[in-house]
Amino acid sequence: MTGHLVVVHPTAEVLAEATAARLLTRILDVQSVRSPVHVVATGGTVGIRTLAAVAANPVRDAVDWSQVHVWWGDERFLPPGHADRNETQARDALLDALDLLPAENVHAMPAAVGDLDPEGAANLYASELAEHATDGAPVPEFDVTLLGMGPDAHVASLFPGHEALRATGASTVGVHGSPKPPAERVSLTFEAIQASREVWVVAAGAEKAGAVAAALGGAPRDEAPAAGATGTSRTLWLLDAAASSEL
Ligand SMILES: O=C1O[C@H](COP(=O)(O)O)[C@@H](O)[C@H](O)[C@H]1O
User: Fold this and answer.
1) 61 found inside a domain
2) Which residues have any ligand 1 atom within 6 Å of their CB?
3) Between residues 106 and 3, which one has the greater pLDDT?
4) Hey, which of 51, 126, 228, 240 would disulfide with 204, CB 3.0 to 4.6 Å?
5) What's the pLDDT score for residue 2?
């Protein structure tokens, strides 16, 4: 597919290590020309494994973490600190180890507290995104957006055939009835994702091979949401051999 670079690594372990190294290099490259750097983190198996690999990579000490903002592509709408929250897993894998990353630069999506519902959480997050954007844009121009992908080709919490896929005029959306637990989630919309300079879809495992082939083979994004995950300057598909086996 035009404009997409597909990189295949032999195993999920190498994929996570290589993506971590690539992410650190991307942050350093951006910091050589501008600050702050806006990074969108993902949940999911290979996404969290990648963050753990960043934590273990000595190059992390070359980054000026005081000038990095961390956002999320989606969140499972659960109570604060819940083990299944993408935020909790990212903090455990990496963020808590970054002493120089200011707490106010970690922009977790709101957790399920009190009367807050996914729509309310989405609205709060949209306001936070807008506060850090420039020129009246709804979101910062993300330097890199990492997206894991499910076997159904979902990215963030945008699931095939789901109404959240069709959200327009908003940067975030509350999600109900997710086919993957938990049912309630908060997600960036396609509009927000597509405002990223670079989008990296990261996937490992044979169970993802059909979804990879569909998304890269021209399936509509309503059927294969990952097909709509594109960046303004670059879109990377970072795969292990098993996930690429149907290409
Ligand atoms: O629930 C989610 O799933 C996807 C993919 O997860 P994986 O374990 O199949 O890699 C993830 O990208 C998303 O952020 C997360 O909320």
Assistant:
1) yes
2) 42-47, 73-74, 76, 86, 148-150, 157, 180
3) 106
4) 240
5) 45
- β-partners of residue 202 are 148, 238
Ligand 1, atom 12, residue with closest C-alpha: 148
Compare 239 and 2 and report the one with higher pLDDT: 239
CATH number of the domain where residue 68 is located = 3.40.50.1360
| Res. 1 pLDDT band, cuts 50 70 90 | very low
Query: How many structural domains comprise the chain?
Result: 1
Helix (H, G, I), strand (E, B) or coil at 12: helix
245 inside domain? no
**Domain for residue 127, yes or no?**
yes
How far, in Å, is the centroid of ligand 1 from the Cα of 44? 4
User: pTM of the entire structure?
Assistant: 0.97
In the reported structure, the alpha carbon of residue 110 is separated from the centroid of ligand 1 by a whole-number distance in angstroms of 18
* Structural domain boundaries, residue 127: 4-240
Amino acid code (one letter) for 190: F
CA of 33 to the centre of ligand 1 (A): 32
